[in-house]
Each structure stands twice: as structure tokens, then as C-alpha cells.
Amino acid sequence: MAKNDDEKKALDQEIGARIRLARKAAGLTQERLAELVDINPQHMSDIERGKRGTSVISLRRFSIVLHVTSDYLLFGSNETNHIAFVERMKTLNEAEQDMIERASNLILEAMVVAAKAAKKDD
Known about the structure:
Layout: H1 3-25, H2 30-37, H3 41-48, H4 56-66, H5 70-75, H6 81-90, H7 94-121
Helix pairs in contact: 2-3
């Protein structure tokens, strides 16, 4: 197999794995995601297993449906996923948004406490 073929296979596997993770995080089945992206379920399975690549059109649809950036799907980069996060937050009702805000604040407070404790141990 040529170097380009190896690179494409590795890239297809990486993208497929990230799509699978994002799908599970979104609480979707392969069948439902396939329906939302307008591909057949077998194709969806093949993409997630890295057996087939995905078109640019489908990649865009995955990004929209899964509320992740194309950078994340292509490169694993989370740097711009805050935009997707904000967009997803907009779909929540006020009570759900409040719950997310409270949970986020608790996590941040725990991180500050842990950082202070680690500093004392040094």
C-alpha cells in the first residue's frame, strides 16, 4: 500500500473515531445519526470503523448535527468547540442552562481547590 493510502486509512480511522465519540456524547444511535446526515446505516457504520471516508457534505452535516466543529472532526482540535458549545447551550431551556451553569461553577471551584492543594504539596 502506498504512503498516501496509509495516510488516508489512518485519517479515516481518526475521523470515524471522533464521529463515534461525538455521536455517543450526543446520545444518538448510528441509525439516527445516519438518518440525520442522510446516509445509509451501513455507510455510517463503515465511517465510524474507519472502513470508508466521508464526503465534505457529510462532514459538514456531522458537524452541524453533532454540535462539534469540523476542526474537531478533522484534527481532533477542541480550540473552537466553544462556539459549538454555545450554540448547543442555546437549544436548552432556561432550567437546563441554569443546571449547566451550576455544574460548571462547581467544577471550576473544585479545580481551584485542587490547584491550591497541589501548590501546598510542592
